[in-house]
Amino acid sequence: MFLFSGKINFLSILLFLSVCFNVSKVVGSDFTFENSIHLALKNSLELKAQNYRLAAAKHSLGEANSSKDWTNSFSTVFNSTNKDANSDGSFETNDTTTSTISISKNIFDGGEAFEKHSIAEDTLKLQKASLIKVKQKIILEAIKAYLDVYTNQSVVRLRKRSLKRFEENVEATKLKLEAGTVTPTVLAEAQSKYAKAKYELILAEGNLNNHTSKLKSITKISNIPINLKLPKLNFRIPKTVNKAVKISLESNPIILVAKLEKKIAKKNVDLKKSNNRPSLKMEFFGKDSQSSVNTSTSDYQSYGANLTFSTPLFYNDSTKDNIRRLDKLFIATSFDLSEKNRQVELSTISSYQNYKSTLAKTSASRSEKISSLLALNGIKKEAQFGIRTVLDVLDAEVEYLNASTNVIKSEADEIYSQFHIKSILGNLSIRDINRQIKINDDLKENNLNFTILDSKAFN
After folding, report:
1. Are the C-beta atoms of 259 and 330 separated by less than 8 Å?
2. pTM to 2 decimals?
3. Contact indicator for 135, 46 with CB cutoff of 8 Å
4. Rounded to an integer, what distance in angstroms lies between the CA atom of residue 292 and that of residue 82?
């Protein structure tokens, strides 16, 4: 009785482990696509670099107020003189030390701080748009790599099945040749078909290895599952190409970057002009002057304030040429924006048409697969009555496998084309793959030394 109970417990444990293993395997397989995209974003060095550029742009907002920020200084001047005060040839040494502490600030600076802050805000927006652009590029690369592995895995499985059938036919033909029921020509033909199937399998395995290596490189996944699944979409693309073009011209990051570059170029002209506008500076100071001569009347302590108004009298030639140069760059960005609009519009139309083509290709491939299956079944029946040969059946099976391969490839192309359209629209993100995934941008901070007097000051 005890032994029987022990066997039941042992079997129960095995069943439990088996269920847990299978469940984890299914869950892992279901999340392989989402996880691969997540890891591609997490491990991308290009994305990390762009995150630091964005963080740097945030600091430029505070930096933009430098012309209106408080400035401070401490200076000490030591002066040693020898004077012949009585003109009798005797010189008297006079050592004077003058120390000054001052803080100053521009009350108005000709609009320099305003222009710099405005440029910094647009630069921050530009870096955010560039970040979206980089993320979309990485997501598309990861999706393409995943789908390439998926299609090539399917092709390899089909090629292996085909090779096994041709190998079995060669072995059967050899036995028939020994029995004298077929000629050597039939065996040679079977071996030729087998060699071709073997080459196609080698080619398919080579393609699979290349695409698997790329997916591993992008995602840093060491072991790629052998049965990837075709991902499902949880978004919809616009119903018409005109609507897609309208959205892309408003939201595509390439367009957003070009617009911001144009605005920044225009503001650079205004920033340069601010250097030739009046400014008003306020300064507070304190001075202490001590002389080595006991009877010196030059010793003093003082404090006070200065208000300094200054303005250029005219634009010099170098400043004029500088402004003209910046203005020409602004005009260039205007043409760049128009060109980017043309390119994005053309890309949207082309991608939308490609998506429609993939729909038609998928439909045609499925019809081809059904037709090839019907033909295969018909040839098998004809072979039973001696109308067709075994090689005819195998050729029909190859046609069916090729049709199945075309369906797999066209379905993958259809999925990728929709993601590609989403990227051109400018709103492709990890949320289109899994709304729960969040990418944490962990930025490292270096320990910067803000000490005024350090060892490098005396180099």
Report:
1. no
2. 0.82
3. no
4. 12
Instruction: Please report, to the nearest 10 degrees, the dihedral formed by the alpha carbons of residues 337, 343, 346, 347 taken in order.
Output: -120
Q: Tell me the C-alpha distance between 359 and 365, whole Å.
A: 10
Per-residue pLDDT band for 25 (boundaries 50, 70, 90) equals very low
Using CA atoms, how far residue 268 sits from 58, 275, 325, in Å, is 19, 11, 10
Helix 317-384 to helix 241-251 angle (10° resolution) is: 140
Q: Which residue has the tokens 């180099």?
A: 459
CA distance 251 to 132: 11
| Residues whose CB is less than 8 angstroms from the CB of residue 199 and which lie 6 or more positions away in sequence, other chains included | none
- Does residue 94 contact residue 81 with C-beta atoms inside 8 Å? yes
Q: Is the backbone of residue 87 left (phi > 0), alpha (psi -120 to 50) or beta?
A: left
Segment among 113-122, 185-194, 364-373, 436-445 with least mean pLDDT: 436-445
Three-state DSSP state, 218: helix
Using CA atoms, how far residue 221 sits from 38, 54, 138, 144, in Å, is 11, 28, 16, 16
Instruction: Pick 31-69+109-277+312-433's CATH classification: 1.20.1600.10, 3.40.640.10, 1.10.10.10, 2.40.440.10.
Output: 1.20.1600.10
What six digits make up the tokens of 384? 């039973």
Q: CA-CA distance, 240 to 425, in Å (whole number)? A: 13
Give a three-class secondary structure readout of 417-441.
Answer: HHHHHHHHHCCCCHHHCCCCCCCCC
CB-based burial label for 205 (10 Å; 0-12, 13-18, 19+): middle
Nearest to 418 by CA among 343, 358, 347: 358
- Residue 301 pairs in a beta bridge with 288
Looking up tokens 């002389």, which residue turns up? 291
Contacts of 390 (CB under 8 A, 6+ apart): 169, 172, 173, 383
